[in-house]
Amino acid sequence: MSEEILINVTPLETRVALIENGLLQEIFIERHHKASHVGDIYLGKVVRVMPGMEAAFVDIGLERAAFIHNADVARISAEGLEVGQEESTATNLLREGQMLVVQVAKDPIGSKGARLTTHLTLPSRNLVFLPRSVHLGISQRLENELERERLLGLAQDCLRQESLEGKAGLIIRTAAEGAEQRELIEDIRFLKRVWAAVARRIAKSDGIRVLYRDIPLYMRAMRDLLTPQIEKIRVDSASTFAEIVQFTQDFMPEFSNSVELYSGERPIFDLYGIEDEIDKALGRQVKLKSGGDLIIDQTEAMTTIDVNTGAYLGSRNHAETILKTNLEAATAIARQLRVRNLGGIIILDFIDMADPEHQRQVLRTLSKALEKDHAKTMISGLSELGLVEMTRKRTRESLEQMLCSQCQTCQGRGRQKTAETICYEIFREIMRVARVYENDTLLVVASQQVVDRLLDEDSSTLADLEELVGKTIRFEVEPIYNQEQYDVVLF
């Protein structure tokens, strides 16, 4: 399985695409005026404690106050380590006006502020450093038990060698598979220096400020996305290329020869039709090769995905046709979740299957396809209504939230009233105005579609209305009005 990373850097934004067998699997976009805050550490000020919500709001200098829940607040000992949790932690430990060191766990999304935690972490290529915890953990994605034991033993030795045993903790990342002790020691020493710098800033600060910012998107891609399956990293910016080459030489020399400066005449994202894929990912419908389709609807509460057979009739019996469509849909859904970065609660409505074995096959296929997802996912079984409920961890805005705004015509409904409906609304408004004012003439200002209908299909109704109210009704087209806008004014 061949994979590539494409990095497109412009003065306005950075975009990173993960390609697998020629298909877009994930797209990351960071606009320089609106960079992600996930991983950033702040000294914030508690502005409101909410005992009833078991939470607090903290000002960290962003547009909206950020939110921290009880479970994300830890008591810190005199040694600077987290100690056992208590009930109503936020209520007991926080007070309005208090300064608090926090880390952004989720970016602001929609009308919600950022989500914070006091459980600080500093990631590197192989490790996540826990400066306030003595926990030693390992990624669940590392399934080989012997490798897990080896890495845990190495990490314990490294903590002891760096005099950190009982003073800090580590989580071993999936990328550490096969790593040697020397590589882990290098990561720990680097992270120690980073934390020492953060600790100095904490000691010197008394107001709201940034204490630590995570590295830029293209460097995070190098840190988090590089796996042995990556064959090429193509970059279209000379300065970014130089940074990435230096990074790989310092930390991942095995990838140094994989980094390539792209200087072709076509834009780098045109190589695999990425722009078209992004446009498709903003639509509701996803066509399947078999002729079926997915209908994806994203709301604030949840995302629903409906599977349809569409034009696919199949060559065997009805149950086999449904199974084939659902299996293809399961793989496509896993990819769409990554490309669109859909998070939170997701409801999957597969085509009804009577055979329990077919149901198990579809769930296994979905689980297998989701194993490649970098975000944490959890799947329930098939419900009594034939639905699959799942969650996917959400830390940043979805592709739609990042690239789109609410439609000014329909106000986000995805629908607009028909010209016929607006005509009837105008008739009712004319009746109301006619009862109140004595003018002999009324002027209706509306869009071209509405005026055309009033003068054509509804002309006889209009004549009856003029006779009923005893007034002349004139019309004027306003080009800037959308179909739902109109005015009835005295003339």
Q: What descriptors fit this protein?
A:
single chain; 491 residues; alpha+beta; 6-stranded antiparallel β-sheet; 12 helices; 26 strands; 32% helix; 27% strand; globular
Description:
The protein contains 12 helices and 26 strands. Helix 2 (145-161) packs across helix 3, helix 7 (318-340) packs parallel to helix 8 and helix 10 (419-436) crosses helix 11. The protein is α+β, with helices and mostly antiparallel strands and 491 residues long.
List the helices and strands and how they pair.
Blueprint: E1 3-9, E2 13-20, E3 23-31, E4 41-50, E5 55-59, E6 66-69, E7 75-76, E8 82-83, H1 89-93, E9 99-106, E10 115-117, E11 122-123, E12 127-130, E13 136-138, H2 145-161, E14 169-172, H3 181-204, E15 209-212, H4 217-225, E16 230-235, H5 238-251, E17 259-261, H6 274-281, E18 285-287, E19 293-298, E20 302-308, H7 318-340, E21 344-349, H8 356-370, E22 377-382, E23 388-392, H9 399-403, H10 419-436, E24 441-446, H11 448-455, H12 459-469, E25 472-477, E26 486-490
Parallel strand pairs: 1-16, 13-14, 16-17, 20-21, 24-25
Antiparallel strand pairs: 1-2, 2-3, 4-5, 4-9, 4-15, 5-6, 7-8, 9-10, 11-12, 12-14, 18-19, 19-20, 21-23, 22-23, 24-26
Q: Please, how many helices? A: 12
Span between N and C termini?
72 Å
Question: How many DSSP-defined strands?
Answer: 26
How big a fraction of the residues is strand?
A: 25-35%
- The pLDDT mean sits at 89
Which structural category do the helix and sheet elements fall into? alpha+beta
Low-pLDDT runs of 5+ residues are none
Largest sheet: 6 strands, antiparallel
Calculate Rg over CA atoms: 29 Å
Percent helix, as a range, is 25-40%
What is the quaternary state of this protein?
A: single chain
Query: What characteristic shape results from the CA principal axes?
Result: globular
